[in-house]
Amino acid sequence: MLCYAMFFVTPKYKSSVQLLVTRNENIERQSYQNETKTNIDMIPTYKEIVMSEPVLEKVKETTGEQVGVAQLKKI
């Protein structure tokens, strides 16, 4: 059955999830240099989240723009 499902059945849906973990402010603060490095390292993650389809769809709905998500990604 598993082989049949893997090779002959077309998936009906696809999903993905992104999880962003932040640090607790109550925990003893890191040194300024480490905190700055961590923030810089997180920039690509923030960019990926902001440019994701669910976020851009919400932007499109909120602003009333008549452009597609693909066009918004180019902006």
TrEMBL record:
Coiled coil: none
Residues making up the signal peptide according to the UniProt record: none
Protein keywords: Cell membrane, Membrane, Transmembrane, Transmembrane helix
Keyword Glycosyltransferase: no
Subcellular location: Cell membrane
Any one GO BP annotation for this protein: capsule polysaccharide biosynthetic process
Membrane topology reported for the UniProt record: Multi-pass membrane protein
InterPro entries per record: LPS_length_determ_N (IPR003856)
Gene Ontology CC: one annotated term: plasma membrane
UniProt name for this protein: Capsular polysaccharide biosynthesis protein
Lineage start: Bacteria, Bacillati, Bacillota, Bacilli, Lactobacillales
